[in-house]
Fold this protein.
Amino acid sequence: AQRVTQPEKLLSVFKGAPVELKCNYSYSGSPELFWYVQYSRQRLQLLLRHISRESIKGFTADLNKGETSFHLKKPFAQEEDSAMYYCALSAKAAGNKLTFGGGTRVLVKP
Amino acid sequence: DAMVIQNPRYQVTQFGKPVTLSCSQTLNHNVMYWYQQKSSQAPKLLFHYYDKDFNNEADTPDNFQSRRPNTSFCFLDIRSPGLGDAAMYLCATSRGTGGHTGELFFGEGSRLTVL
């Protein structure tokens, strides 16, 4: 069975500092990895997906199959980045269902 | 502009009193999901519909049922809510095909309180 682990429940950084959210997964096949974000009083929404290899709102994430990780990074955090972030995995063998990690709350202080 | 709409946003029920939560979508997506999210926890998949095909998760209690009368609507029925069923219930949709299977569109959720 697939599993997603986000070891940090809370990350607190100052504005302008780098931020890195850790995500590790376990799955024997080739997964698709995603980061979802939930801003205060808003719905959960897709931030980025590994196959797109894109930068969204200054965030990037690289899939490292050797380390089974998909960490999310931003070099200069902004106050508007304060939110709940969920790493998620979709596995073909599991019917493409999305499995979420426990989430990391990011607080960017002024 | 809202694409996945959940009603009601807040639902208070009594222990054992049936409750129905609804979800509608304007995206014409094949797949509709129901997730349960308890405080400070990850969303947990209860079941999903791929078109009319119902897929129940193995650990979803029998107390939870779902209906999808057409493409646009999906309902979550909790037959006899217990205190442990108090949670946020999230509806989501996805295309289900063409490499978009992990891209889910969520509603704002229905928060259930059980007294």
User: Anything to note?
Assistant: The mean pLDDT of chain B is 92.
